[in-house]
């Protein structure tokens, strides 16, 4: 069984389904439908239960693979196809959405509007079948079957015996067809439409199929097992709405009151129930109650709704978990190594660069928490980084709220930048649509927080330290490593240096290389890159002119631990480790000073790492 947990003995979900199956299998109430002669052949003991989650896990028990005809459960799906084919207004012009107390097969239209009252009664369903696009009945049926197959994730066929049986006896539905034709709801010969409707009702499915179809509606139209889209997401709400109000014949109100999920049942004994965003349930058991609903089907859905709190209107707040972590550039910085002066500015003024790590599903309720939190802190924020790495989805209302945040920040000259947006594709599309010509300017996206932080830090440093030279070449006497050395000593050491140039992109050091020298960067910038287990590169540090790298080697002489790449054309002065070691004898004072500077640098790095680790506490 696909997607069924391997160790099914430990699944409390499966346990509950099996328990319910045992409890209800003995029920003797209800009668198998006989008005379509072929349906009377069903075994009243058949009983299957299947639950499929919106992320595709399947739990099933009993006769969950017993084929039967879908009957009225086809109606919401065909209605969805009509909506896709014709659009909402054309469909609404022909079929209402009001529940009715009349029988499902009543030969009447709403006297006020002249339309069938809703698409779940036969008149509305036959009208919906008449709206399906296609030149011939065969093409229309083929398109419907293809649609059912996307929902179920497998090939489906019409049960010909049941179709024939209904066609031979279905005069009432023909009468409905003629009535629809008379009142202009159907515009062509009604008989082929009614025959197509009989065939759509005779599509052979299993309880497992029904649960996958229901889960597809729960997953906004995308089959959670195959990943294929069965209906455009925007129409799912309309399909579920008519199921919610009219799906259970004359029991719809009580059903919504007790079970609280949009649902649909059919005369062959099937029931589907959908909990949007969470799961779909399929039950099959032919004996029907006087309202025409499967007795065990109602029993199962009632019990599951109580047991797992599935009532749609009994939702608890999901509002306060969207912010995973907040930090600022006063505590957490990019991997660009800054000078002591710059570091100081970031420590004292970096609090105006705010990083919000968001998580989970962004909807109105969860995004509102973020927006409100920003509202409380906005005066202190000059640049805002919104990290979507752990965001699973963002719906349209969340997109709208973040769009508004971007615009409000831009209006007061503040920046909003986004990171890790690659899997949240609708977000970018939304922003593009709404920001229009200002998209490039206002929608700033970086791959990761490191790049975003560097950009924000540069912006802050440019404001606080204007005119500070940055990126220019330095002479050997300006190397940080030599600070505090008397000029004469600097000359002694400079004489030992050996100059090298590298092109942009060139590897200066490879991980694992033997360490023979310490590098002093005269111009350009270099990055230390670690290859992660996933194979993706990760920047550990970027150095600019005046700084040194590879200095850990003078302490432990261990092989190089990471790769160093030239980001731009680079000029380096190399201090060979032998020459450095030889200072022991010739100039011990210089050596002590250099080691002093190296250890100062290393301790600065360690402190930064410690400070940043604390952010994650
Ligand atoms: N084909 C059946 C009919 O039109 C479907 C009825 C139902 O399942 O409610 O009578």
Number of separate strands = 20
Low-confidence stretches: none
Give the integer mean of the pLDDT values.
93
The assigned structural class equals alpha+beta
Taking strands numbered 1, 2, ... along the chain, how are they ordered across the largest sheet? Answer: 2-1-7-6-5
N/C terminus separation: 43 Å
Named once each, the bound ligands are: glutamic acid
Helical stretch count? 22
Structure description:
This protein is an alpha+beta fold. 42% of the residues lie in helices and 17% in strands. The protein has 22 helices and 20 strands. The protein has a five-stranded antiparallel beta sheet. Strand 6 and strand 7 (279-284) form a beta hairpin. The structure holds glutamic acid.
Short note summarizing the structure:
By secondary structure, this protein is α+β, with helices and mostly antiparallel strands.
List keywords for this structure.
5-stranded mixed β-sheet; alpha+beta; single chain; binds glutamic acid; 617 residues; 22 helices
Give a topology summary:
Elements: H1 12-25, E1 48-53, E2 58-62, E3 68-69, H2 74-86, H3 88-94, H4 122-131, H5 137-152, H6 160-169, H7 171-182, H8 190-201, E4 204-205, H9 207-218, H10 233-246, H11 252-258, E5 263-265, E6 270-275, E7 279-284, H12 295-307, E8 323-328, H13 340-349, E9 353-362, H14 364-377, E10 383-394, H15 396-411, E11 415-419, H16 425-435, H17 439-442, E12 444-446, H18 449-464, H19 487-494, E13 498-502, E14 507-509, E15 517-523, E16 526-531, E17 537-543, E18 548-549, H20 553-556, E19 563-566, E20 570-576, H21 577-586, H22 588-615
Parallel strand pairs: 9-10, 10-11, 11-12
Antiparallel strand pairs: 1-2, 1-7, 3-4, 5-6, 6-7, 8-9, 13-20, 14-19, 15-18, 15-20, 16-17, 16-19
The structure holds glutamic acid.
Glutamic acid binds next to loops.
């Amino acid at each position: 069984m696909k997607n069924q947990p391997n160790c099914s003995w430990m699944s409390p979900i499966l346990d509950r389904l099996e328990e319910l199956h045992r409890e209800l299998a003995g029920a003797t109430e209800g009668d198998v439908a006989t008005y379509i002669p072929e349906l009377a052949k069903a075994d009243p003991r058949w009983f299957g239960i299947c639950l499929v989650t919106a992320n595709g896990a399947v739990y099933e028990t009993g006769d969950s693979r017993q084929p039967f005809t879908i009957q009225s459960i086809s109606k919401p799906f065909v209605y969805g196809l009509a909506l896709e084919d014709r659009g909402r207004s054309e469909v609404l012009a022909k079929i209402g959405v009001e529940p009715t107390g009349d029988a499902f097969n009543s030969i009447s239209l709403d006297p006020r509007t002249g339309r069938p009252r809703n698409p779940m009664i036969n008149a509305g369903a036959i009208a919906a079948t008449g709206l399906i696009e296609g030149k011939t009945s065969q093409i229309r049926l083929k398109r419907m079957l293809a649609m059912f197959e996307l929902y179920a994730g497998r090939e489906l066929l019409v049960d010909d015996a049941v179709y024939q049986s209904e066609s031979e006896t279905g005069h009432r539905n023909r009468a409905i067809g003629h009535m629809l034709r008379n009142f202009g709801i159907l515009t062509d010969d009604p008989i082929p439409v009614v025959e197509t409707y009989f065939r759509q009702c005779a599509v052979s499915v299993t309880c497992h199929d029904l649960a996958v179809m229901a889960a597809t509606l729960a997953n906004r139209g995308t089959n959670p097992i195959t990943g294929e889209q069965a209906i455009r997401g925007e129409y799912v709400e309309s399909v579920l709405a008519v199921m919610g109000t009219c799906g259970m014949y004359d029991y719809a109100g009580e059903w919504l009151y007790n079970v609280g999920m949009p649902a649909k049942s059919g005369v062959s004994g099937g029931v589907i129930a959908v909990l949007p965003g969470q799961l779909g349930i399929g039950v099959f058991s032919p004996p029907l109650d006087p309202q025409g609903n499967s007795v065990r089907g109602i029993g199962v859905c009632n019990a599951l709704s109580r047991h797992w709190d599935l009532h749609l209107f009994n939702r608890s707040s999901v509002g306060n978990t969207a912010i995973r972590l907040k930090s600022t550039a006063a505590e957490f910085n990019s991997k660009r190594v800054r000078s002591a002066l710059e570091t100081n500015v970031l420590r004292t003024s970096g609090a105006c660069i705010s990083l919000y790590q968001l998580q989970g599903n962004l909807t109105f309720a969860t995004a509102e928490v973020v927006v409100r939190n920003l509202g409380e802190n906005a005066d202190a924020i000059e640049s805002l980084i919104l990290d979507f790495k752990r965001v699973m989805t963002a719906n349209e209302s969340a997109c709208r709220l973040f769009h508004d945040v971007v615009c409000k920040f831009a209006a007061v000259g503040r920046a909003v930048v986004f990171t890790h947006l690659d899997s949240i594709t609708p977000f970018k599309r939304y922003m593009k649509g709404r920001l229009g010509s200002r998209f490039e300017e206002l929608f700033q996206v970086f791959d990761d927080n490191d790049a975003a932080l560097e950009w924000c830090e540069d912006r802050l440093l440019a404001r606080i330290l204007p005119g500070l030279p940055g990126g220019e070449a330095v002479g050997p006497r300006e190397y940080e490593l030599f600070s505090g050395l008397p000029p004469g000593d600097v000359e002694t050491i400079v004489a030992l240096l050996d100059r090298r140039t590298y092109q942009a992109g060139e590897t200066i050091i490879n991980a694992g290389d033997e360490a023979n020298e310490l590098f002093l960067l005269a111009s350009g910038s270099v990055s230390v890159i670690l290859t992660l287990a996933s194979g993706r590169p990760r920047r550990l540090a970027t150095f600019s002119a005046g700084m040194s790298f590879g200095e850990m080697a003078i302490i432990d002489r261990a092989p190089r631990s990471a790769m160093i790449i030239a980001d731009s054309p680079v000029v380096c002065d190399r201090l060979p480790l032998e020459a450095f070691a030889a200072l022991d004898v010739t100039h011990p004072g210089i050596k002590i000073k250099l080691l002093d500077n190296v250890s100062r640098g290393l301790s600065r790095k360690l402190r930064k790492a410690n400070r940043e680790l604390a952010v994650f506490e």
